[in-house]
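SAMPLE LOG
Freezer: B-3
Tube label: C17
Construct: single chain, 324 aa
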Amino acid sequence: MKKESKKITVALSVWRPNERWLAEQMASIAAQDIVQKDAGTIELLCWNDSPEDFDAAGWFRAHPQPFPVRMLGDDQTHGVTAAFAALTEAAGGTYIAYCDQDDLWHPQKLSRMASYLDTHPACPCCHCDAGLVGDDGQPFGQHLYPEQPPVLENIMYQKQFLFRANWTLGCAMLMRTNIAKAALPFPQMVYHDQWLAVWASFHGGIAFLPDILLQHRLHSRHASQMLAGIESRADYYAKKLEKDRSFLSFICERIPEAAAFYVDDRRWMAARTAWQAHHGISEACALWKGRHVRMSITCFELFLPFLPDACLPLLLVFLRRRKK
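STRUCTURE (predicted):
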């Protein structure tokens, strides 16, 4: 992989990073076997999304890397999705590897995934498995896909369900850069990895590799924490229900053929909206009728209007801990 056409862009967005974790992440990239063979194989693009709090350019000057590093940013904070959109637009490699600021990549991560895409030219994106570690880097003894069910490889399943639940990780994906660029602009109501996963599912599908090729750090500051920023009913309806509704509309606008896959989802979304506006028997029945789309959300939203205000924060804490 010494040719420029095979170069991999590692797209890193930083926001108030733990500098020790960032150093460990960079060390794991420097230890990639393809970097050891040829440091010019990859380029690192870094977007600093916390310019008032962290001098990313200064940090990289103080921590030189064996591969080219290019800094991006405009001295403003835009959020993680916009940051990765800007990185995608600037990427010059054949493949793009999205990178968190606190994970640990196994030495074969990039070579194993790039090799798969090299030998499967019709595949737009591959996704590896990941071990899960805590703040201290100690493993939980778990990984993303314990059984690696064959259903993950079913493109029809991917098209149908990647909208309903984001069970992909950007840091575990390697994507053809031209496919990722075609997905621009990214929707701002969801994280970049969910949109890219949906996009890839309609452009050839995602290959799920059984290899555990990184250790993914879970901690309290994690951007994708379940129901992040939701502390009240108003928060839930504004940040969860409205997000789901807007994302579904965005998908159907950008990918016209997706509408045929989301007939039930659109009916269920309408029922969720109607139930939010009026808690009547007919609205409840319509929402329950669509429970096959997402049983857990259907039950939660049917119960939500009657949940005492003091109980909601406690329930959210329980759900977040259970998710971990």
